[in-house]
Predict the structure.
Amino acid sequence: MAMFRLDIKSIKRSAGQTATGAAAYRAGERIRDERTSHTYNHSRRQDVTHTEIFLPSQFGDAPMEWARDRARLWNTAESVEKRSNSRVAREFQVALPAELSAAQRLTLARNFAREIADRYGVAVDLALHDPKPSGDPRHFHAHLLTTTREVTRDGLGAKVGLDMQSVQRFRMGLSDHGAEYTAVRERWASLTNAAFREANIEARVDHRTLAAQGIDRQPVVHVPMEFYKHQAAGLDAGVLKQMREEYRARIAARRAQASQQGSQERPTQQEVPVAQWGAASAQGAAVPVRQAVIPTEHPATPAQPAQSAATEARPATERQPASEPTSPSAPRTADETRRRAVQNWLRMRSKEAESPRNEPDRQRASEASSSRSQGEDLGR
């Protein structure tokens, strides 16, 4: 079952991030930030299998050593940004299909990096990571760290691509940011499916949502693995094994149901050839789908309904206190662990939204409202 994943995010100072730190971590190297004099040392990483910097093809083999050296490139990206909330880099993180060989995964990642560099005129720092020993053995992935500004022979120029302002993109006749995100995702799906065809693998991926694909089920709630591991601490091996088996059974049932509905309701569809890069996706076109699933070695916690009426009806004295530790000798049930993990995660995110860090914004809004009320009173 092939898995589609493409995450696009920005590296920004407002979140305490730096381009030098991001590059050092992804490439598994030691880089010193000349702006802050801080050294990021991730040279002990063992899961980085390949690193490479791509420049736009127009420069060929031009002697641009400042852009081909990782430390100099990202220190340059830091030095040209003057604002405290600047976006200093952008990242495209993709899941590399485990169905392909190591050489085929590398070729796929390099092709995507080359197209990103040529499309936006930026430098692309590619890093391939193997699965960690304690993680899912299928979790091959690649990080494409790109500059937010175009590359010139003498340095970095203006903002380009997804980091351009919407007004500027409109004036240049470019699509809006939403359409550009969709185009990038579609292109990655096309490249992945092309790699499958070349390898004579029947699996396919689709960048569209479940609803657009005609799959009648809700996506699961994404709970970060570290949070789930924390919630599962204290459970013995037997309970964890039971949770994995139950998860696999639910996924198998969903696949069977989706396959049955698809054969009954939808006509057979021909595979769409690899689209021209940047072409708008056809809403009616479809690709034979092997829908992505969450790794089974570390089961995610699917969306569960709220606590049952029986649980809510129990007196508070009968409910287990939230602070009560769970000992391995008396493990919780698998369903209860999954339900609590989802509830605790959503509760934690809700508390973050109401944290004191947001108090200044609420206070300013309250002061503005008070000022308007006083002005109205004086006007009377």
User: Anything to note?
Assistant: The chain has a mean pLDDT of 77. The first strand starts at residue 6 and ends at 12. Residues 218-314+324-353 form one domain. DSSP finds twelve helices and nine strands in the chain.
